[in-house]
């Protein structure tokens, strides 16, 4: 009897880690772009969708070698991130940040439409990297692909944190997030740095799309829900904080997994939306206490 | 070194600088004295590229600064100690200093040397290396703002009211550091309300009133004139 509970527990932990890793990649990406620009990017899930779809068609359908398909997906996502940066900063100069947020929702919808034309509206997947045979831990099981998801996410996020804390370029990114005028005065190229934030954010999403698609499948409309999950996780942890985004993602995954395990799959999305509402109402700065000051400092920065 | 020719800046229909001309020669400390709203910060922001002049020219060495991107100024040898210090508050003292050297980030040896020099100038910063900038005292933050500016190996440093809000003892420490900068061959443009302390260390000075230069000359001679004394005889005038 007690071993049944243990098995359930292991299963919940493994599923939480798997789902939480995926959400974390999106949530950390949302936080990165928020820090750089003050904009909440609701097109964040499109990075995941575009990379998943690209690898599914090049590797899954056309039979390219996996590394080539992955490289192609990364290129696609980097270009898309640059486009998104160009669009949002063009609008940021003219309209409010809320306006730009709505532009990102528009960009997300447009991308879904474009993807449905380029590919189709079906679900796509490709074979898992290390086969399908589940690994048993007591009576709980985990697929090898889940380990890929957890491992790749952990490496990406740890790498990002290292980059932001230890390299001069990463520190310049943080400096830009804190004070664009002061960053300009010490010679940091602010626009290039914002572009870098978009690209890194896109690469995190792309990594997510590549490792999760074999397990979860992807379709042209799959990005939006992920963006909402990522946004909720980032808000819960504290918008702008990377450790916060990670924590928020794991908590949401935990709540979701427990709901599905003990209640029903039908209620899977209920907790996320409940959490968004509660956090927005009661805890707008999140658990870790993210950045409260929002917005581009374009008041005192001459655009050139 | 630095030359402003007929510089005008407006914010909407408020004109903050009305045709200011000014020259800073290499190796000088030049004071820019003015009371609240005179336009000191506006002049410094215009030089730093943070506001765009409506008319006039700014030259640094042989370069027309108005044709350069704002961020190029650090590489051209100009550093700014801005109003309100504008430190990277959530980052450590060391990171702030390292970012000050961003324009020469590939020269690790130079950065290490400059860091040692800044620590020699302000030993307090060495003790507080890993403290977050925003948790430091006002005086320490001002030292850090100056240290950050020096990390780019500037030829010219523009300072906007470094003495503001500081106790007299800290003010003399900061001004002592400015004199030592001149000994190291660094040119300084020092905007201040504290005329008494500033005119004592400056070589020359300009008095700015409502966006216009109303007096200029040798610092000590200006200090002798009644008008400057009357206008700026602050609480701690000597
Ligand atoms: N962003 C702005 N928008 C509108 N007006 C401004 C702006 N910045 C400054 N001004 C105006 O320009 C004038 C000069 O301001 P500035 O900040 O340059 O003065 P200052 O000499 O630095 O004063 P203080 O000693 O108080 O710092 C003031 O009348 C001020 O109200
Ligand atoms: Mg001022």
Structure write-up:
Chain A contains 11 helices and 2 strands, in the order ααααββααααααα. Chain A is mostly helical. Chain A has one domain (2-282): ABC transporter involved in vitamin B12 uptake, BtuC. Mean pLDDT of chain A is 90; it is low at 292-304. With 238 residues, chain B is an alpha/beta fold. Chain B folds into 2 domains: 1-77 and 156-238, 3-Layer(aba) Sandwich (Rossmann fold), CATH 3.40.50; 89-153, no CATH class. In chain B, helix 2 runs parallel beside helix 5. The chains are: A mainly alpha (304), B alpha/beta (238). The interface between A and B is medium-sized, with 21 and 31 residues.
If strands are numbered along the chain, what order do they take across the biggest sheet of chain B?
6-7-8-3-9-10
Number of helices of chain B: 9
| Largest sheet features of chain B | 6 strands, mixed
**Ends distance of chain B:** 31 Å
Estimate the helix proportion of chain A, in percent.
over 70%
Provide the gyration radius of chain A in Å: 19 Å
CATH superfamily of the largest domain in chain B: P-loop containing nucleotide triphosphate hydrolases
Order of H and E elements of chain A: HHHHEEHHHHHHH
CATH class of the largest domain in chain B: Alpha Beta
Instruction: Tell me the overall shape of chain A.
Output: globular
Q: What is the 3D form of chain B?
A: globular
Low-pLDDT stretches of chain A: 292-304
The overall number of domains of chain B is 2
Q: What's the overall average pLDDT of chain A, rounded?
A: 90
Count the domains of chain A.
1
Strand order of the largest sheet of chain A: 1-2
The SSE order of chain B reads: EEEHEEEHHHHEHEHEEHH
What is the CATH topology assignment of chain A? ABC transporter involved in vitamin B12 uptake, BtuC
